[in-house]
Amino acid sequence: MSLLSPLPLLHSFSFSSTVATKPTASRITATPSKLRFSVVNATPGDGNSSGGREEDPSFNPFGFVTDNPSSRSAIQLPESPAEDGNVGQMLYRTEDKGREFGSTIKSGKLRWFVRETGSKESRRGTIVFLHGAPTQSFSYRTVMSEMSDAGFHCFAPDWIGFGFSVKPQPGYGFNYTEQEYHEAFDKLLEVLEVKSPFFLVVQGFLVGSYGLTWALKNPSKVEKIAILNSPLTVSSPVPGLFKQLRIPLFGEFTCQNAILAERFIEGGSPYVLKNEKADVYRLPYLSSGGPGFALLETAKKINFGDTLSQIANGFSSGSWDKPILLAWGIADKYLPQSIAEEFEKQNPQNVKLRLIEGAGHLPQEDWPEKVVAALRAFF
């Protein structure tokens, strides 16, 4: 072999491997020239993610592989190499995605992106869905659609600095503190004409925690709370992403990772996002540096110990007397089930734990049907 000849990376072999995701199985086949991808039908079985595997799943040389190029160990080559990694192409492909049920709402000097399903005349009341960091209200699209079909009026805003909402530069009208988030949320509820008390659904870290501390300061405005996987006790671990964001200089570098959100979702889930979903979570971070710096400021400003102490004490027996549902994805790789069990023990009369099998840190994304069933039974 000539020393100048290219290495025969995929020279003379082919293989196939099958992995199961929750409703399809994905097959990767390598040839000497390129790697092709195809999706084959899989039977959902009893609704668990283990259904649809082929006869011999034991041999899978690439492990965690799906159709998402951001998969941690996927080996995928583009059909058109010129488009691979081209930010302009990616933006063009995704710019109209992910805005289901949404519109821009002006509240004071801020512009919120808010998803809405149902109507003011909905007979069963209003539900407000609040997401955590570093995601967006897109994660609730299926849940809120089905809840409106069940007779609820639903709102799901993107927090300021996240998703499709405005991302102000710190120091110019918004500094990403807990107090400012609370005040902005109060004004948004007025603009949306949400009548109190309403049902509240909260999930996730940072701004998700601020949703819970807002409820503690406004108990009269809340009828019932449903909490999906969120840090709830002082023993709740803090994911590495938020620790990295608090490191000087390294945080500034980390926050500009365009696939930060999708990687975080995948890191806490038993599944890898499909391309069409990953595109939406990636889009804000591709469009500008604003979302990354907003996340950076939020992570720097939060006092994790104080915030978690507020939540743990505020919802304990003797402090909180309204019903709370814990709908908990047991495959969460950030927050173990023990966090939910500890929280329930602090107020067993008002907190009811419902475990969601097959779901991870974002149960509303991993298995929305089970979340809807839990919410309909609770509200």
UniProtKB/TrEMBL annotation:
<dbReference type="InterPro" id="IPR000073">
    <property type="entry name" value="AB_hydrolase_1"/>
</dbReference>
<dbReference type="GO" id="GO:0009507">
    <property type="term" value="C:chloroplast"/>
</dbReference>
<dbReference type="Pfam" id="PF12697">
    <property type="entry name" value="Abhydrolase_6"/>
</dbReference>
<dbReference type="InterPro" id="IPR050228">
    <property type="entry name" value="Carboxylesterase_BioH"/>
</dbReference>
<protein>
    <recommendedName>
        <fullName>AB hydrolase-1 domain-containing protein</fullName>
    </recommendedName>
</protein>
<feature type="domain" description="AB hydrolase-1">
    <location>
        <begin position="127"/>
        <end position="374"/>
    </location>
</feature>
<dbReference type="InterPro" id="IPR029058">
    <property type="entry name" value="AB_hydrolase_fold"/>
</dbReference>
<dbReference type="InterPro" id="IPR000639">
    <property type="entry name" value="Epox_hydrolase-like"/>
</dbReference>
<dbReference type="GO" id="GO:0003824">
    <property type="term" value="F:catalytic activity"/>
</dbReference>
